[in-house]
Write a structure and sequence with these properties.
alpha+beta
Length: 313
Amino acid sequence: MSQKPSLPAPHNLVPELQLVEPLPPHWRKRFEKAIGFMMANLDEVPPPSWDEVAAHCAISPHHFHRIFHSVFHQTPGQYLSRMRLQTAVHLLLASAKRSVTEIAHATGYSSSQALAKALKRELGTSARAIRALGKDSELHELGQLLEQLGHPKPEAGSLESQLVAGVECELLSQPRRTLKGRRLTAPSLEQLCDLGASVGAQPLLMVSDVTAQLTANLFDYKMDVGVRVDEASTQGGSGVIRTLPAGDYLCCRVALASETAYFAVWDKLLHEVVRQGLDLPEEGMAVEIVENPAEMTRDVWVMTLQLQVDRVE
């Protein structure tokens, strides 16, 4: 009896699986749990909070938002909103006997009016038009609607983001270091340039807690800014003294001229934390070293970024 020819392995068209597939096992498991938890609670009003999702998949809530974005190219809130809307559109097309109100409640909207607003805002259409599209339109018209609900592509971002993709990140062991300077809240560019001019040729160090760096609250963002000094010379005098612990830091060196590039390169570092199977310590540090502080008023800053990490055994 002749054997049936074996079929090739299926080509994976599930974006979430494609995005987590290259990750180390412990990160892949965490994100699979996060996605599963959000989908299982799709009809909850209000939806699960970041803290709840982070706790469910054993990621620090302080780090969860930015790390999730670095992998899936969406915030958790954007992802959940897209999944709710995607499911609602599916039900509108497939469940003609269910009312719009029933579908709204089944997908986490408080009312049919809330669903109507989301459809108008995100897709420029209505529940009635979607149901009509499923009955009377050609396949490509339906495809155009569903394409808007697909997973966003990183290539659709800025040129800075594309350039950042080529940045090399290296895991380096750093010695214990001491900074002496000032503590600033939401420092302005003018403040940083003034400090850069005051330190002359010495590199300017800017240090913040990893939690503060990832939260990125631009209106309450505390940063210690100064120069590296010998620990023995910190006795007496005024100013903030900040000790940077010895250990492993994920590092990259860049020249940048915009906030777009600045935030993109931090996202790159976060993505590398996940890709290399590292972890972020709860009380770790984010270090930015401006190599040309006397020239900070010019367009281009040359910087080394260092993110404190833990190796996972």
